[in-house]
Amino acid sequence: MLNPIEMAKDIVVNGVLPDDERVWVPQAENVWFRPLCLSTRQGYWVNLLRVRKSGILSRHRHPAPVHGYVIEGKWKYLEHDWTATQGSYVFEPPGETHTLTVPEDVPQMITLFHITGAMIYVDEKGAVTAYEDVFTKIEMCRKHYIACGLGPDFINQFIR
Ligand code: FE
Known about the structure:
Helix content: under 10%
Low-confidence stretches: none
Radius of gyration: 16 Å
Order of helices and strands: EEEEEEEEEEEEH
Number of strands: 12
Mean pLDDT: 96
CATH topology: Jelly Rolls
Number of helices: 1
CATH class: Mainly Beta
Strand order of the largest sheet: 1-2-3-10-5-8
Bound molecules: fe (iii) ion
CATH architecture: Sandwich
Distance between the termini: 23 Å
Structural class: mainly beta
Oligomer: single chain
């Protein structure tokens, strides 16, 4: 059976946890992400988030669903009393605003996130301060991969 000609090319990432440190894109102090699939057609992205000691992911609101799987370590949201531990699955519903932190006793956490739409960064009153979408993520990656020597085309393998 022939595949449809419009079909996107598949993606296989061997070594989701990369040997080459340069694959991790700096996001904020003690926070990095590693792209896996960046969908410009459907407006979502799949990445690993890595947060090391005292890292924090600023308060943000999700207009669309997020799915997460904790590969290593643990983390929590300041706004919730539960903790996502290694092996946990997390669903973040549309409308949710939260701030991700890693406990002091955790040297590193790595979580796979599937994020649809955007991350809308907000202040304590909910006013928008910044946003990220699949296009700003691609731009961040491309800038970093040029700067670190992997080159401008390195990101293309993850874009569909
Ligand atoms: Fe979130």
